[in-house]
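User: I'm putting together notes for a lab meeting next week and I want to include a structural view of one of the chains we've been expressing. I don't have a solved structure, so I'd like a prediction I can at least talk through. The sequence is below, exactly as it appears in our construct file.
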Amino acid sequence: VDVNNAQKDSQDIQLENQQQQEYPTQIYSPQQGEYPYVNPAMFQQELPMKWFKFIVSFVLGFSAFMNFVSVIVFFLGFGNGTTYGRNHRVLLLVYEGLPVLETVMCIWSVLLAFFCIFVRFRLASFKADGPKMLMILYICSAVMNVIYIIGIYIVTKGAVSLGATVHTQTVVCTLMVVCNKIYFDKRKHLFVN
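Assistant: Thanks for the context. Below is the predicted structure for the 193-residue chain, given as structure tokens.
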């Protein structure tokens, strides 16, 4: 019986020492001007994760789907549905570089679609590099749009202008990088896998 009590007392003392190491306490001492140690993690509130759930459950899947749709639209010869989309077949004959540009954009769209799926699973698994991969995805999408805008201008020598859709997508991608950077920096303690 004494052995069991001694073991229990020993365990209680070890537990107290461990708690004191994790949350050391100090008594306010006006002579020293020190305040008691407060662990900030004790007061940290749980942050909402609705935006994260929306990105993982909808945005990335929809983005992958839309990238695949854009590839199909280009291959069927509808252009990108903007100003030059109505005369797409004629423009492909007039401007020799346009088929090459569209082929490059199709390949880029397929790669982005698969990258969307990859990023979705990285975020859903709370991988440490998940938020960074999301930023890379948005940056790649914005770069793709800029290359497309410049490519159309160069190939057609300024004769064909793109609609506001591509320009808007570029601005939205840039804003998403900034907003998601702020959002995920506040939650980086959750992404540790």
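A couple of points you could mention at the meeting. Residues 26-30 have pLDDT under 50 and may be disordered. The CA atoms of residues 12 and 56 lie 45 Å apart.

User: Perfect, that's what I needed.
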